[in-house]
TrEMBL record:
It comes from Ancylobacter radicis. One of its GO terms (molecular function) is 5-formyltetrahydrofolate cyclo-ligase activity. It comes from the Bacteria. The keyword Ligase applies. Its EC number is 6.3.3.2. The keyword Transmembrane helix does not apply. InterPro entries: FTHF_cligase (IPR002698), FTHF_cligase-like_sf (IPR024185), NagB/RpiA_transferase-like (IPR037171). This is 5-formyltetrahydrofolate cyclo-ligase. Its cofactor is Mg(2+). Belongs to the 5-formyltetrahydrofolate cyclo-ligase family. Keywords: ATP-binding, Ligase, Magnesium, Metal-binding, Nucleotide-binding. It catalyses: (6S)-5-formyl-5,6,7,8-tetrahydrofolate + ATP = (6R)-5,10-methenyltetrahydrofolate + ADP + phosphate.
Length: 202
């Protein structure tokens, strides 16, 4: 159930806690955990041959997605990456073919995010692999405060069935993430500790 604004825990504080845990991981452990999480994600996704799967280009201390992308391509999936159009707008997704060099594009705030060039086709993904600052076992996520994925998921889910899978390190899990009316829940979360299967809330 969504909380009222007056009872919401401090999202900024929870975000800082989860990000500090992530940043404190040993680099070697981070690499191993990324490979393990990729295996768990593939076990959950099953047969992805012919599907369009949107992954993300990791920034900072985010979990590496290259191990997952490698497995997805080997399984016959087409890979797309998100592109930020403008603040307050949903993301779009462009196909990323093997061998195509990514270009730096505008992200939230002053961030620059690698994405396919404008010549790459825009597509509607079947699966979204969603970056996380923090998450809980109910499928609620903390992003980075810009709301891009909430707006995007709401738009895509009105058009067709979309599977949204959070992707992060297990240390980023929180006991409870505050949920507001506009927040879009995940269908599952894949981490190095396994898969969190999200059940519907009453």
């Amino acid at each position: 159930m969504a909380h009222s604004p007056d009872t919401l825990p401090d999202k900024a504080g929870l975000r800082s806690l989860a990000l500090a845990r992530r940043a404190g991981m040993d680099p070697q452990l981070r690499a191993v955990a990324s490979e393990v999480a990729a295996g768990h994600a593939m076990d959950w996704l099953g047969d992805v041959a012919g599907e369009i799967v949107s992954v993300f280009s990791p920034i900072g201390h985010e979990i590496a997605t290259e191990p997952l992308i490698r497995r997805l391509r080997a399984a016959g999936a087409q890979i797309a990456l998100p592109v930020v159009l403008a603040p307050g707008k949903p993301l779009i997704f462009r196909l990323w073919e093997p061998g195509v060099e990514l270009v730096a594009t505008a992200g939230p705030g002053r961030m620059r995010i690698p994405a396919p060039p404008e010549s790459a086709p825009a597509v509607a993904p079947d699966v979204l692999i969603v970056p996380l600052a923090g998450f809980d076992s109910r499928g609620h996520r903390l992003g980075y405060g810009a709301g891009f994925y909430d707006r995007t998921l709401a738009l895509l889910r009105r058009a067709k069935r979309i599977e949204a899978v959070g992707y992060a390190f297990a240390v980023q899990q929180l006991p409870q993430v505050p949920a507001e009316a506009h927040d879009e829940r995940l269908d599952a979360i894949a981490t190095d500790a396994g898969i969190i299967r999200v059940v519907a809330e009453d």
